Amino acid sequence: MKTLKIELWSLAKHMKSNKVNIENIYYIYKVNEEVLEKLLNIKYYKDNPSFMPLDRKYGHEFKLIKTNENIKNVDDYEVLDIDSENIYIDDKLIYYNINVYLDNK
Fewest CB atoms within 10 A around its CB: which of 5, 54, 90, 99? Predict the structure, then answer.
């Protein structure tokens, strides 16, 4: 069993509010079209659209996207977990990070 981790980072200045959680993250971001199209096709997001952390209409560009392996075959995976993290400097929200964990079927 292999787990694929996708890290999505963005500057906090792109946030619409200081209150950050996985429920509102999908209003805020988009990634490049190639990665976006692959993630949009994951069954988990089709079944749970409110948890889609990527959005073309409202989005701002991610500063960094990285994975622990090539996601060409993303259809072979299902979403195992999604977590998120806020990074503060001097009590000010600077970065926001989403981790998407995919497990091969």
Answer: 90
